[in-house]
Amino acid sequence: MIGRRDFLRNSLASxxxxxxxxxxxxxxxxESKLVDARIEVLTGEPLGTISPNIYGHFAENLSGVIYDxxxxxxxxKVPNVDGIRKxxxxxxxxxxxxxxxxxxxxxxxxxxxxxxxxxxxxxPRRTNFWNGGETxxxxxxxxxDPNQFGTNEFAHFCKLIGAEPYLAANLRSLPAEExxxxxxxxxxxAGSTTLADxxxxxxxxxxxxxxxxxVGNESWGCGGNFTAQEYAVEFRRFTTWVPRYGKxxxxxxxxxxxxNVDDWAWTRGFFEEMxxxxxxxxxxxxxxxxxxxxxxxSRGKTRDWIQGKADALKFDSVDWxxxxxxxxxxxxxxxGHWQVMGEEDPxxxxxxxxxxxxxxxxxxxxxxxxxxxxxTPTLRDGVFSGxxxxxxxxxxxxxxxxxxxxxxxxxxxxxxxxxxxFVVTPVGHVFAMYAAHQGGQGLRTIFSAPTIDYDRxxxxxxxxxxxxxxxxxxxxxxxTVVNPHVSDAREAEIVVRGAGIKAGSATxxxxxxxxxxxxxxxxxxxxxxxxxxxxxxxxxxxTFAPASVTKLAxxxx
Length: 557
Ligand code: AHR
Description:
557 residues, 8-stranded parallel barrel, binds alpha-L-arabinofuranose, single chain
């Protein structure tokens, strides 16, 4: 292995790759390095199409996410398009944002969609669900929802960025009729209903054609505190007759409020209860929402939600690995819930929708003090996000959508903003790098590398040495790889079975300091660098920087 300092000196100056031609190697830093890892991409073993929606987002009406983050208002000095922050629109177009979930989260189950439509100056102010956690440093709009950003503004935002809207309906505190009416408001054709007229009067004559509807959120907790069986009954009631205005069966895709982490009983309870009226009932469920946050960095000392959390900016290398380990549980959760879902749905017509994921740290690192749940993502969170997106890419047959929590000014945010300040975080850069996977054919890829061993408070612990994912569109292959080692580069032999490589480039996100992060003052502390690779042949050797996310864009012969 190669040390962090040597790596940075040698490799970032020159592309760290070499053609494997007749066994001859031309490594940028000498001939003596051992290839101790191997990546084999099997072009003949497709896994399924990677849904672009795996690269989805989540924007809850929570503290600075909507008010200040997305919505600045049309009269703001902050450059905006119809009140929506322009820099955010520009960035989200770049990353090909496919879908955005709104308005919550827990907020959704206390939201009356009618408050957020109609003339803006007539809309009521309401107590925000998150009111209790706001401090005096926060603006009034965070405690008392001014309802300036409602359904119209959200649909407009989605249109501006080229994404599909995903609305989460209120199951806890509104009746099923209001769900029906919200769908009618959004989707009934121009001039067809009173609600379509109301939409038109607001400047939106054409229907929004909202396809994705969350039926409640975390219904096991803030969304109503139901049992799985009670929730299944509510789900059936809410979704039994909802208006469709076209002919497509999937014109409306209902997403059930799924489990928290490894709550297998919630998944089993819901599926069994649904199936009591016949397994065909499950055909009304498009997706089953799984939530998993990586928050417990206590190294096994506690399971307390407050005590278990650690700092976003101050951490040591053990914290780094512990966070990745917590996040890496996602793969077992996907496989486990998929298996349980298969007990009543053996054909797997219901897919997983991981509509909340990311690290969750203790308060204290907000770029805008007073923003509840806001944290500053570092390189660690960029690596975490690359690892998670790779993991989703490896299960295209199971995952229909995923939504990173949350888009801006919140947990694992792609962007931080306050008034006229805006910055792309390492998480945002990773989403840009990985956009090339969207809609590609996932390919089975075998990673083999020595594990990383570390000391977890006197006990041995380990984490995998190299992982990633590959996808193909025509002749363009995208191979993304995470090297989680805090200090050592990892050299790997990369073999693409069944194809040669004509050309390629490497884009790397890393930094010599694992705590590195972007701020309003230093917006480019952590940015990806791209270098072209020169080779022509079957395979290559590449040295992955320590603590890095790498995208290899390879043109196959
Ligand atoms: O993302 C913050 C909160 O986390 C969401 O509102 C809720 O669904 C989850 O518990």
